[in-house]
């Protein structure tokens, strides 16, 4: 089973994880000129040919920031359409759904990173080689891929 998991995040912070058996591949969500790079995203889907896509639904919090919210929802919709075109099954999941299953509800982002590093030893989850530490969006995309193996 091949799974692609997408944490849309906000522009330039989203992460993608593709899980094939026990092998994990990490990618940033590609952008070109402030828009999703459909060519690169399609190339990722074409190269891995995932059976299942899992996407984290964006959410709003009362009193929360609305900065970038429209972009986040637009990106989610575009990615959802791409997944439906390329995958046999698409799972739409809220953060509370997958985090509850992995016992990560109401935890700090570092705990997600720690769990991802335990599940996928050898992955550093850095956004780029210049980054000093792991990126929680990439770690959470990996955890969502793992979650999909539990619920599929």
Write out key terms for the chains shown.
Nucleotidyltransferase, domain 5; 7 strands; two-stranded antiparallel sheet; 5 helices; 152 residues; alpha/beta; five-stranded mixed beta sheet; single chain
Polypeptide structure, described:
Helices cover 41% and strands 21% of the residues. It is of the alpha/beta class. The protein has one domain (2-151): Nucleotidyltransferase, domain 5 (2-Layer Sandwich). The strands form 2 sheets. It has a 5-stranded mixed β-sheet, with helices on both faces. Strands 4-5 form a two-stranded antiparallel ribbon. β6, α2 and β7 form a beta-alpha-beta unit. α4 packs across α5 (136-151). It starts with a strand and ends with a helix.
List the helices and strands and how they pair.
Layout: E1 2-7, E2 15-20, E3 23-28, E4 31-32, E5 35-36, H1 38-48, E6 52-56, H2 69-86, E7 89-93, H3 95-101, H4 109-119, H5 136-151
Parallel strand pairs: 1-6, 6-7
Antiparallel strand pairs: 1-2, 2-3, 4-5
Helix pairs in contact: 4-5
Compressed to H and E, one letter per element, the order equals EEEEEHEHEHHH
- Rg measurement, Å: 14 Å
Assigned CATH architecture: 2-Layer Sandwich
The CATH class assignment is Alpha Beta
Question: Which spans of ≥5 residues are poorly predicted at pLDDT below 50?
Answer: none
Strand content: 15-25%
The CATH topology corresponds to Nucleotidyltransferase, domain 5
What is the overall shape? globular
What is the number of E strands? Answer: 7
Instruction: Quickly count the domains.
Output: 1
In what order do the strands lie side by side in the largest sheet?
3-2-1-6-7
- State the end-to-end distance: 10 Å
Helical amount: 40-55%
Determine the structural class based on helices, strands and strand pairing. alpha/beta
Supply the number of helical segments.
5
Largest sheet: 5 strands, mixed
> Could you report the average pLDDT, rounded to the nearest whole number?
90
């Amino acid at each position: 089973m091949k799974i692609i998991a997408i944490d849309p995040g906000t522009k330039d912070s989203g992460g993608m994880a593709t899980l094939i058996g026990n092998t994990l591949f990490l990618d940033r969500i590609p952008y070109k000129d402030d828009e999703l790079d459909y060519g690169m995203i399609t190339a990722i889907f074409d190269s891995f040919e995932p059976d299942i896509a899992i996407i984290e639904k964006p959410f709003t919090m009362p009193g929360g920031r609305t900065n970038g919210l429209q972009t986040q929802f637009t990106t989610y919709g575009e990615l959802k359409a791409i997944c439906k075109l390329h995958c046999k099954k698409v799972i739409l999941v809220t953060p509370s759904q997958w985090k509850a299953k992995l016992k990560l509800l109401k935890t700090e982002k570092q705990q997600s990173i720690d769990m991802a590093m335990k599940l996928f030893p050898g992955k550093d989850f850095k956004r780029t080689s210049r980054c000093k530490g792991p990126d929680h969006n990439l770690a959470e995309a990996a955890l969502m891929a793992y979650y999909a193996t539990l619920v599929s």
